[in-house]
Amino acid sequence: MQDRNHLARVSTTHQVNIIENGLIDIPMLQILKPDGSLHEQAVEPDISEQTARKIYDTMEYTRVLDERMIGAQRQGRISFYLASTGEEAAVVASAAALSDQDMIMSQYREQGALAYRGYTTQQFMNQMFSNEKDPNKGRQMPIHYGDKELNFMTISSPLGTQIPQASGYAYGQKMAGKDAITICYFGEGAASEGDFHAGLNMAAVLHCPVIFFCRNNGYAISTPAEEQFAGDGIASRGLGYGVKTIRVDGNDPLAVFAATQHARKLALDEKCPVLIEAMTYRLAAHSTSDDPTGYRSRDEEDKWRAKDPILRMAKWMKQKGWFDEEANKKLIESSRQAVLSALKEAEKVAINPIEDIVNDVYSEVPWHLQEQLENLKSHIRLYPQMYPKTSGRVK
Amino acid sequence: MAKMNLLQAINSALITAMEQDKRVMVFGEDVGHFGGVFRATSNLQQKFGRDRCFNTPLTEQGIIGFANGLASQGSVPVAEIQFGDYIFPAFDQIVNETAKFRYRSGGQFSCGTLTIRTPYGGGIAGGHYHSQSPEAFFAHIPGMKIVIPRNPYQAKGLLLASIRDDNPVLFMEPKRLYRASVSDVPEDDYELPLGKADIVEEGSDITLVGWGAQIEVLQKAAEMALEDGVSCEIIDLRSILPWDAEAVVDSVRKTGRLLVNHEAPQTGGFASEIAATVQEKCFLYLEAPIARVCGLDTPYPLAHEKEYMPDQYKTYEAIKRTMNY
């Protein structure tokens, strides 16, 4: 019988031997150069023109959506928004390497993955306007999307909570014999939460087919990465937990695609977790409630603007003869129009009837919530003008 | 005196505390250079250096565990949890450690110097993860104090008292009042007593008890009731634990009626504790059942926020029901 004690695998030394950060080198996978050509020795991933176009178009769409929704927030039409500008390749190219059956557990900056799966502009708008067509029934803030049919778990605000959940979901997929894995997105800030450590450890020990995808984007609200972790980023933590690990240039869509393809195959074939650390940069503010001019320089942002992942992919596609400038312009314009008209449409839809304040708290409405609802309805009947969004439907 | 909003008053209290005692340290997510997401810690890092005002990694259990160690060593940590809703990853550290350090070590060690600051409450369209009022969870833990100010003047005086109190204090800030208004706040050092209620308005017919941002709601409801000739006595509890039962009991013995208002769900809310105590101590004085006007026993909603809130209209109606019982 194989010795299961880890001491049997530990080598020995007879001098004090400090293992320092820096001795472990975790290189970053790059395939595309900024000019759109391939690095020497880099292998182009197996990617069809159709998939490449879909990745590109989704990245452009996400950027349009972000621009328009930040505008809508500034006009007071929605209360809150989070943009993914600069991180489109990390999110969209990784989602493109998955099967539609794979579960996506996202943090909150992964609208690109949801768009890639086919979430419609109208669906985005209904969620953001908290109207009665929002699948969350108007209970969560804008950007907390979720769609069971698209295998996209509903987003929760507290950071890192989805990480151990992803391990559990993946374990369930394995036990059910499903040909599917779970991918779990989070930022390098969330990797400081206890849930990250618990989740990776559980996944490694219980052999869960899950990809932990860290968008290392440099900032957790205003806190720069150097005040978030010491040592070699998030990748080295994967090794510490016994999780296979890949570090990738998050602004290189081909590298992200290739890394995620490999990770998915590993997770599925070997029933194991894989950590991907995508090195990127949050060009946008953390959210519409944040102002990055208070904590970082324009210069720093400009350096990263030059590494725009969308631009890099466009250059590569031009070299392949897969890019039509005119068609692209039209696509962007039609996305803008689509977002605007969906936004106007969503604004017109009413909020949920008041009964939904007590629904879904439990599987059925218990007596005390029923009583509280009846009291609330009587009160609204007494003061209909004070609760204009619901009183019209309280008879 | 200076005109300050609630955030500026907190900032002023922190500056006063840090100037007066070198052991005071302020930390949490984004509190360093940026000054916190609400800017309560603005300029502290510039004034006192990165060793005494700093960003932490994004880990609430880490922040409070670290603060517990720091406090037990004799420093005076003021730890910020960015939103009250995010205090729960630190729940174990607070419930099992912060609150019990002194007791379990026979008084050898304690976290008495620790103050945990956190914004709480709704009314800002924040949905359930940015609106909760978790005071009742912590009121169930012996060993720490819970303090909630209702205006800038209280915020500075109560925060200074909390920082200097010899017990760990959870200091909950009503975030919808952060920038709502300004009032006169002394620039000098001053403290307000912990555990003592404030009689906001005297009255003779019914006692209204609340805390934090809900005091404004009670005042508006009292104005509506006054038009009907009902005189309301309004008590701001200021401290949830220990709470000023004497002030409430004295008032109810005078008025014969009690209404308690809070934003947190009704079941197991702190209003239940107040109601139980008052019926024990004032049974023969009560002329009507004790009324509770609280949040619903549901998660805090987004689209239905207005309907969920224990607002002045619901409070006014409850006053009428109590008066006409």
Automatic annotation (TrEMBL), chain A:
Coiled-coil region list: none
Cofactors that this protein relies on: thiamine diphosphate
Key word Cytoplasm present: no
Keywords: Oxidoreductase, Thiamine pyrophosphate
Residue intervals of the Dehydrogenase E1 component domain: 57-351
Enzymatic reactions: N(6)-[(R)-lipoyl]-L-lysyl-[protein] + 3-methyl-2-oxobutanoate + H(+) = N(6)-[(R)-S(8)-2-methylpropanoyldihydrolipoyl]-L-lysyl-[protein] + CO2
EC assignment: 1.2.4.4
Pfam families (UniProt xref): E1_dh
Listed GO biological process terms: branched-chain amino acid catabolic process
GO molecular function: branched-chain 2-oxo acid dehydrogenase activity
Annotated InterPro entries: Alpha-ketoacid_DH_E1_comp, DH_E1, THDP-binding
Function: The branched-chain alpha-keto dehydrogenase complex catalyzes the overall conversion of alpha-keto acids to acyl-CoA and CO(2). It contains multiple copies of three enzymatic components: branched-chain alpha-keto acid decarboxylase (E1), lipoamide acyltransferase (E2) and lipoamide dehydrogenase (E3).
Family under the similarity heading: Belongs to the BCKDHA family.
Record-given protein name: 2-oxoisovalerate dehydrogenase subunit alpha
Organism (species): Alteromonas pelagimontana
From TrEMBL, chain B:
Membrane-spanning intervals of the chain: none
CDD domains associated with the record: TPP_PYR_E1-PDHc-beta_like (cd07036)
Domain Transketolase-like pyrimidine-binding intervals: 4-180
Cofactor(s) needed for function: thiamine diphosphate
InterPro entries: THDP-binding (IPR029061), Transketo_C/PFOR_II (IPR009014), Transketolase-like_Pyr-bd (IPR005475), Transketolase_C (IPR033248)
SUPFAM superfamilies: Thiamin diphosphate-binding fold (THDP-binding), TK C-terminal domain-like
GO molecular function, one term: branched-chain 2-oxo acid dehydrogenase activity
Recorded superkingdom: Bacteria
EC number: 1.2.4.4
Keywords, comma-separated and alphabetical: Oxidoreductase, Thiamine pyrophosphate
GO biological process, any: branched-chain amino acid catabolic process
Coiled coil, from the record: none
UniProt xrefs under PANTHER family: 2-OXOISOVALERATE DEHYDROGENASE SUBUNIT BETA, MITOCHONDRIAL, 2-OXOISOVALERATE DEHYDROGENASE SUBUNIT BETA-RELATED
Physiological role: The branched-chain alpha-keto dehydrogenase complex catalyzes the overall conversion of alpha-keto acids to acyl-CoA and CO(2). It contains multiple copies of three enzymatic components: branched-chain alpha-keto acid decarboxylase (E1), lipoamide acyltransferase (E2) and lipoamide dehydrogenase (E3).
Name assigned to this protein: 2-oxoisovalerate dehydrogenase subunit beta
Species lineage: Bacteria, Pseudomonadati, Pseudomonadota, Gammaproteobacteria, Alteromonadales
